[in-house]
Amino acid sequence: KMSFQEKRQHQEQAVKNLVLEMAQQNGLFEKYVPIITRVEPSQRRGQLRMSDKFGFELAHIASEPDQYLPLLLRALADTPSGDRDYNLMVGYLRGIAVSNDGFVEQIKLQLAGSPDLCICIPHLCAAVGIKPSDISLVLRLLGDDMITPSAVSVWSYGRALEKLNPDQLSPLLNYLLER
Description:
globular, 179 residues, mainly alpha
């Protein structure tokens, strides 16, 4: 019997192999990305658990950081807001951030300008590592009512905030306490 860690490693290797196999066949990403980025609310629990890993592996086979980003953004934009699952795109950008953090910072600003996609910024920031500039960005989005405080709840998981000092966090905490 496999341990939890062994099962996870086995699943992650299977996802990596799937991405590599799909890359060999024209049109498969275009066909399946819209399916992976859509999860109806009634189906959310436990669905697409490895879509983040799929995106991460997709980033590693990309010849350019933005190779698959238009496909991901288009699939999300074409999905009704309540059915969007951002994990694939977040995983992709997490994979890109390993070698090109500046590109991901630019994408955060692009997403912030989109009323439909800015909701994923706190999740993206948590996935790639929250920076002081992310606090300012999220405060702006909160102040402009583009995201709700619940969107920032992802920052309370794990150790997402551990690299920030209290002075960097206090503007966000003050904002949330005052609302």
